[in-house]
Amino acid sequence: MSEPAEAGILDRLRARHGWLDHIIRAYRRFDERNGGFFAAGLTYYTIFALFPLLMVGFAVFGFVLARRPQLLSSIDDHIRSQVSGRLGNQLQELMNSAIDARTSVGVIGLVTAVWAGLGWISHLRQALTEMWWDRHFESPGFVRGRFSDLLAMVGTFAVIVATVALTTVGHAAPMATLLKWLGIPQFAVFDWLFWLFSILIATLVSWLLFTWMIARLPREKVSFVDSMRAGLIAAIGFEVFKQVASIYLKAVLRSPAGVAFGPVLGLMVFAYITAYLVLFCTAWAATASTDPRDRHVEPPAPAIIAPRVHMDEGLGTRQTLTAMALGAVGALTLSRIAGFAHRNR
Could you give phi then psi for residue 208, rounded to 5 degrees? Predict the structure, then answer.
């Protein structure tokens, strides 16, 4: 009898370290439920929603310039000093026409942003549901579902902007401006303290954000307790990635090609890795235990036992004629056999 095959190195490591086994199970769940595909779809919706948001921002800027003519004249003077001749005049005319069309641009941008944002949040909720559960959940009514998605989208967007703003404040130039505005002498120790404080606050806010996303955005809600550790992992990873992204932008923006393509590529990578991180941490939370709640299999429908009584109404006309014909053929065959046997005697 052959001996069982020896376990591989990875199997032994998984048996020895529970955290490694958990990561592998989470990745398998993430891969089986097309986590990379959902992350790519979320990246598309994120980039697509930026253009109408830029239109809204441009319209807001146009309203500000229309209410502050001094600021508008200073911008015109700056354009004339930097770009002279016909090109400068064209830029001024373009800016003035854009300011005149600020209302229509803002309305179109706002409607398009809401439409794209609803697609983004709906795709995100579907992806999180796939990471948590195996069965398909019927979506609520159209009006109720869109209203719920709208509230979730606004809340998620506000917290994301807050975390990015808190991280930005911790950088050198904004920190120096903040210290000067507060009237605090600029010492190196204050820079480090404010930087650590901003990172800590941003991580805590991101923790709440990702915990809420993992626990409340799926179609079937789960406990906050099951999502808090996954949300903390996502928050730490998100904060580390933001720091790396800031270093990347500083390095890329030094060249003309980097100025043209670096921010767009960086934004796409940022959106994809953030979506990937959230979905993977959701799969990590779903595999945190072997409780049947993770799979939530519906119980089978109750069996219905009902006796079926079949009434035999006898032979029909066709069956009777067939039986008579077979009987006649059988009788004729037997008579022929009997006559043949009698003659042979």
Answer: -65, -40
Distances in Å between the Cα of 265 and the Cα atoms of 166, 218, 224, 247, 262 are 23, 29, 34, 14, 5
Question: pTM of the predicted model, to two decimals?
Answer: 0.69
Distances (CA, A) of 196 to 189, 207, 237: 11, 16, 16
Pairwise CA distance, residues 21 & 13, whole Å:
8
Q: Which two tokens stand for residue 236?
A: 């730490």
Domain boundaries, the chain: 12-48+120-132+140-289
Write down the H helix ranges in 133-187: 142-169, 172-182
- The one-digit pLDDT tens for each residue of the chain (345 residues) are 455 556 678 777 777 777 788 888 888 999 988 889 999 999 998 888 888 888 888 888 888 878 887 877 777 777 777 666 677 677 777 777 777 888 888 888 888 888 888 888 888 988 998 888 776 666 667 777 788 888 888 877 787 777 767 666 656 566 667 667 777 666 667 667 777 877 888 888 889 889 888 888 887 777 777 788 899 999 999 988 988 888 877 777 777 777 777 777 888 888 899 999 999 999 998 887 544 444 445 555 666 665 555 555 555 566 666 666 666 666 666 566 656 555 555
